[in-house]
Amino acid sequence: MIVENTHFLNNDGDEEMCKVVALIDIESVHPWLAQEIDAACATDWADEYFAWVISNVRPLKQPIEAIAKRKLYRLELNL
Question: What value does the mean pLDDT of the chain take?
Answer without folding.
Answer: 93
